[in-house]
């Protein structure tokens, strides 16, 4: 579909036709996933999520996808948009090439339950296994656990994770081997391993030293490209690898 | 059981495609080395048999395959250095794209003169 701009009015938001090519799967009727196309009129300020809403609310109510906050914080609506993992609520339609249909598929590597909804359990299990909580020993201090700005900056990047699974399901190793912890679990571990207040670094490093741990990473950088929070995921994984090699946290 | 749909190809960037190319060239080089060790070992069987086998390599098809072999090795070598830097240089992951471009530039810069010279030997006699 060609993007047709309306007569230019000063300050007006342009509207255009968008065709969405959706990968759909209904476990009750389908044996195979199928493609379905819908054309809707959208505006220059709309995101992919708005187009999905329009289809669900006005054309086909059976279209199934997850979304909660719709503002890039809850991490529910990670999906594959034009072949790359993105959050539907952070991808503006006007930034996509609208002369051809926008392809929308569920994220790869996790079992599809219905349409764009996948089974996230293996993903969260991997996250749980790296102990994503503060580990300390001895008596609790009577005041805050203090930390310098430099110590806080050491792991700042990996605190931004919203667990949307965009990184983990962009990883070719994860697609072919579901046993791999995946980028997100390593990001979650990185956030505590390099936290000066935490004392569980050794234990977490040992968990990730597993044959399905950090060493499965082949540095394809798909995860860094996919992260909607701009976390340098591959860099974090490499830091964990080097911490394991040189035992320097 | 829910099914995992195949869908479209994931649109990775430099990092993913250099990883794919690294694997493909690596496997190609492995098979070359396998054949190479076998034919070189023939010299222990008999030098005449060895000479006979090596003589069959002197034809344009093998000449073209040699271009492919050098192309694979040159890419694998430079990309291997890039991976070493990504692994051990703290700023490596941040500059991986620039390093991928460097690998390709060096690859082209070496392959163009080599291919011209090599093919002029193969086809020029």
Biggest sheet of chain A, strands in spatial order?
2-1-5-3-4
Element string of chain A (H = helix, E = strand)? EEHEEEEEHHHHHHH
| Uncertain parts of chain A | none
Q: What is the CATH class name of the largest domain in chain A? A: Mainly Alpha
Give the CA-CA distance, first to last residue of chain A.
53 Å
By DSSP (H or I, 4+ residues per run), the number of helices of chain A equals 8
The number of distinct structural domains of chain B comes to 1
Rg on CA atoms of chain A, Å: 21 Å
CATH topology of the largest domain in chain A: Fumarate Reductase Iron-sulfur Protein, Chain B, domain 2
- Tell me which protein chains meet in the greatest interface and how many residues each side has: A-B, 36 and 25 residues
Shape of chain B: elongated
User: How many structural units, i.e. domains of chain A?
Assistant: 2
Instruction: State the end-to-end distance of chain B.
Output: 63 Å
Features:
heterodimer; A: alpha+beta; 2 domains; two-stranded antiparallel sheet; 28% helix; 15% strand; B: 125 residues; mainly alpha; 3 helical TM bundles of succinate and fumarate reductases; 4 helices; 80% helix; 0% strand; disordered N terminus
Report on this structure.
The complex is a heterodimer of chains A (249) and B (125). The radius of gyration of chain A is 21 Å and the shape is elongated. The mean pLDDT of chain A is 93. In chain A, the strands form two sheets. Chain A has a five-stranded mixed sheet, covered by helices on one side. A two-stranded antiparallel sheet of chain A has the order 6-7. With 249 residues, chain A is of the alpha+beta class. In chain A, 41% of the residues are buried. Chain A has eight helices and seven strands. Chain A folds into two domains: 104 residues, Ubiquitin-like (UB roll), CATH 3.10.20; 126 residues, Fumarate Reductase Iron-sulfur Protein, Chain B, domain 2. Chain B is mostly helical and 125 residues long. Chain B has a single domain, classed as Fumarate reductase/succinate dehydrogenase, transmembrane subunit (3 helical TM bundles of succinate and fumarate reductases). Chain B is built from four helices and no strands. In chain B, helix 1 packs antiparallel against helix 2, helix 1 packs across helix 3 and helix 3 runs antiparallel to helix 4. Chain B is elongated, with a radius of gyration of 19 Å. The N terminus of chain B is likely disordered. The chains are: A alpha+beta (249), B mainly alpha (125). Chains A and B meet through helix 7 and helix 8 of A and helix 1 and helix 3 of B.
């Amino acid at each position: 579909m060609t993007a047709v701009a309306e007569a230019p009015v000063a300050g007006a938001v342009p509207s255009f036709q968008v065709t969405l090519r959706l990968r759909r799967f209904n476990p009750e009727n389908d044996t195979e996933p199928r493609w379905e196309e819908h054309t809707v009129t959208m505006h220059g300020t709309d995101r992919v999520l708005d187009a999905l809403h329009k289809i669900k609310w006005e054309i086909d109510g059976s279209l199934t996808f997850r979304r909660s906050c719709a503002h890039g914080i809850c991490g529910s609506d990670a999906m594959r948009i034009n072949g790359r993992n993105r959050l539907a609520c952070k991808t503006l339609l006007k930034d996509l090439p609208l002369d051809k249909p926008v392809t929308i598929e569920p994220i790869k590597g996790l079992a599809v339950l219905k349409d764009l909804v996948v089974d996230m359990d293996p993903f969260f299990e991997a996250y749980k296994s790296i102990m994503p909580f503060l580990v300390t020993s001895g008596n609790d201090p009577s005041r805050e656990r203090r930390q310098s700005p430099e110590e806080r900056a050491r792991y700042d990047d990996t605190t931004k994770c919203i667990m949307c699974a965009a990184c983990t399901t962009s990883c070719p190793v994860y697609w072919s081997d579901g046993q791999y912890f995946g980028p997100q679990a390593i990001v979650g571990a990185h956030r505590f391993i390099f936290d000066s207040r935490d004392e569980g670094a050794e234990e977490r490093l040992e968990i990730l030293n597993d044959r399905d741990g950090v060493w499965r990473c082949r540095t394809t950088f798909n995860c860094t490209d996919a992260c909607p929070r701009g976390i340098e995921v591959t860099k974090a994984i490499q830091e964990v690898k080097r911490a394991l090699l040189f035992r320097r946290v | 059981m829910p099914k995992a749909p195949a869908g479209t190809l994931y649109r990775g960037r430099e990092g993913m495609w250099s990883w794919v190319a690294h694997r493909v060239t690596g496997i190609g080089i492995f098979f070359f080395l396998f054949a190479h060790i076998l034919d070189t070992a023939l010299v222990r069987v008999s030098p005449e048999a060895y000479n006979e086998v090596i003589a069959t390599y002197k034809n344009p098809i093998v000449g073209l395959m040699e271009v492919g072999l050098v192309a694979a090795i040159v890419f694998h070598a430079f990309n291997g250095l890039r991976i070493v830097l990504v692994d051990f240089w703290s700023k490596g992951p941040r500059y991986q794209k620039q390093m991928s471009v460097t690998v390709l530039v060096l690859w082209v810069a070496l392959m163009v003169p080599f291919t011209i010279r090599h093919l002029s030997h193969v086809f020029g006699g």
